Structures are given as C-alpha cells and as structure tokens.
Amino acid sequence: MTVTPLSAADSHADHRHWQSDVACWRDDIQNWRAEHSAAIVQLQDALQRITEHGEALDSHAKSLSELEARLQHHEKSLAKSLKDGAQAVVDKTSADQHAKEAELHQHQQEAHERIKKHHHTAMAQVAILKAALGAAL
Hints:
Blueprint: H1 8-83, H2 92-134
Helix pairs in contact: 1-2
C-alpha cells in the first residue's frame, strides 16, 4: 500500500473537519441527555400507570368474586324454591332479581373485555420497550 504525501494544509483541513464533527457529536449528546431526562420522567409516569393497572386488575378480580357469590346465592335460592314445591315458572320478584343479575353479568363481561384489551396493548408496549432498551448499542 502506498502512502500519499500529506500537506500541512490538508492536515489542518482534516483537523478542522474532525473538530466540527466533535462539536456536532457534543450537541447530539446534550440533546440526548435532555431526551433521556424526559424519558425518565415519562417512564416514572408509566410505572405509576402500570401500578394502577395492577390495582384495577385486583379490583376486577374482587368484582368477579362478588359476582360469583351472587350467582351461587341466586342459584341456591332458585333451587330451594323449586325444592319447596314452587312451579317451574319463577315469580315476579325472582324474575326481577334474575334480570338484575343478567344486567350485572353483562356489565362485568363488558368491563372484562375492556380490561383485557387494555392489558394486552399495555403489556405488548412494555415488551417492545424492553426489547428496544435491551438491544446492543
């Protein structure tokens, strides 16, 4: 490999160009540090929202337990009334109670679907973020 002779002027020009690159890189780092600080704040907010999501899951699980208990109670009442000689057709009070239970069940189903959709979306975004941050620099 042959070495091309380098003039002092060419050497100075390279140095000026390199100094310009270093100045640009320093600007980039300054901008990245500001973005990094903002990201920390955003991640802290996201962590709070994830914590709240967990609390919502706990609340949803409690609602399911309450719904299940009401369902069991309603079913036992119905079975007892049939055992005690009631007709196959329920009375108005039982029918009204059944309609109320049906409405509560429908609301719980809608809430469950909303929570499921939100959960899957949020957890997918967390996985994407984790993968991006775990990628080699």
